[in-house]
Amino acid sequence: MSEREQRLSPPADLEEARARMAAAPIPPAIMAVLQTLDKAGFHGVVVGGAVRDALLGQGEGDWDVASNATPEEVTQLFPRTIPTGIEHGTVTVLSGRGDERHAVELTTFRGEGAYHDGRRPSEVRFLRELTEDLARRDLTINAFAWDPVKGVFTDAFGGLEDLRARLIRAVGDPVQRFAEDGLRTMRAVRFAASMGFRLAPETEAAIAGALEVFDKVSRERVRVELVKLLATARPSLGLRPMAVTGLWSRVLAPLAEPVLEEAIAAVDRLPRRPTLRLARLLWPIRAERAEVEAIIEALRPSREERARVLGLTAEGVDELAAALDAQGEDDAGTDADADADDGRGAALRRAAAELGRGLLDDAQDLLELDAAARAELAAALEGAALSPKELALKGRDLISAGVAAPGPALGELLEQLFDWVLEAPERNTSEALLARARAMMAGEG
Questions:
Q1: pTM of the model
Q2: Matching CATH topology for 3-162 and 175-299?
């Protein structure tokens, strides 16, 4: 279990919450900003997820700072500021010196106008009251505030009660919260997975009615939430609500039972690598290459993420599974000879070469191979070259030896040599390859 998952039980009451927050390691630079605000007659607090994590004893977090000071008042109060998001009320205050220097993002308490596009408010109104600012936040467990200068803990929307009940609940009216920002639906299921909680019934029910708003959210933001969900200890706690509410079909390929449940259960068993787990969710539709590619492209992954998911849902994994299955069937016989063993080994090497060395570990996990199958594969691949680049003889060596000239024919020769080596890895020596190449060019191979 990771340090982040080793949570304390939620505070029993406000007094215990205050005690835990008083012991929280808030960086000195942030404390200096809050103390300066207080001396000037303003109200400053730390808010959001870092407060929640501190309540659960999860160590240092990224502290969000909010205040009733307007951006103009902040810039007048602090000598070193950067107007990073001043139209939204955010000013970066450069606080502290040396190793203690910290860029503190300070946001004014704010309210928001109507959300015409389901993503951004039509206007931002600066407020003086903390509770009004907390009312616009997404989930009750993210709507805590702590004033370390005065020692005041604020829980205006029952977040402590929801922590104790292990509930993910929207602040106020969930229909309104999700209509304001469609990404909040995905955040709700992601927090269910990361916290190990369940969605409050009214919050879950409101997600289904916000799918059109969710469709307006950029896929980059959706991918960030999906990756976080898939990195949790039990993604099923967020994936099942995604399926029930309709979010699943907006992000992934619709799956029928029992295939859907099999995919979700398998993801929980797999190592916590998001691209591997995403590949498993797309595994049932791997034969529909255009659909798989469309889903991946829609999520705007990095080039590396895209290549890995596409590779893990391509034919190479199926070929590896088929080679292992065939090997298991052959091993069941009592009179399998050495030639058959060599043939099975070559089949495994060809399947591994098709897949690529970089995907082998993920492929074995995706197929959930047992120890015996992994050992068989390791034995077959021991010392093997899995691409022409791993041959002991390079194209320039063949040219220098006068065996081949630069051009397409050279590439074809290397591919033939590679295929020859796949049959028997011990052939991968410069002497054996050069002799084989001479024989092939002489028409003897």
A1: 0.87
A2: no
